[in-house]
Design goal:
- Helix 4 runs antiparallel to helix 5.
- This protein has six helices and no strands.
- It has a single domain, classed as Four Helix Bundle (Hemerythrin (Met), subunit A).
- Helix content is 76%, strand content 0%.
- It has 148 residues and is mostly helical.
């Protein structure tokens, strides 16, 4: 299988986008119950798309970080795992982040019976996602301050 590659740059923009989407989810959908989600198809679409946006952008963020480090990965799960490892996350944290790739796939490919599980997995890992974004920002601020 060929390695995926990502464009360098765009870290700040991607973090801003993810932060905006995560805030929208937290403000508007975090308390949504399964019954309400299942009953309202328009709500389903908005919630699914919001989480899908976060997970797609998270893969892009991690892929960009790896590209800037001169690293490649073979799939989305490996991209998330390798980026977390690069940032010094514990192996179990990297594994949890890597699992989000399969949840992203469930939303993108519209696996109807698995979408709610993907939404809940995102909610369960949102603090870890925020921690990863902060680690990327910390890394970027050190890079900017370091003389070349």
């Amino acid at each position: 299988m060929p390695d995926y590659t990502y464009a360098k740059g765009r870290i700040a923009e991607t973090i801003q986008f993810i932060s905006k989407e995560m805030k929208e989810f937290e403000d508007d959908y975090a308390a949504l119950a399964w019954e309400d989600y299942q009953r309202d198809s328009k709500m389903q679409k908005v919630v699914d798309r919001t989480v899908e946006n976060v997970l797609n952008a998270l893969v892009e963020l991690c892929g960009t970080l790896l590209a800037e480090e001169g690293k490649t990965s073979e799939n989305y799960a490996e991209t998330l795992r390798a980026a977390a490892a690069t940032l010094g996350f514990r192996p179990e944290q990297a594994k949890e982040l890597a699992k989000l790739a399969s949840h992203r796939n469930r939303l993108v490919h519209r696996y109807l019976n698995m979408k709610w599980q993907a939404i809940k997995a995102y909610q369960d890992q949102s603090a870890l996602i925020a921690e990863l974004m902060q680690a990327v920002l910390d890394r970027e601020s050190k890079r900017v301050r370091s003389p070349l």
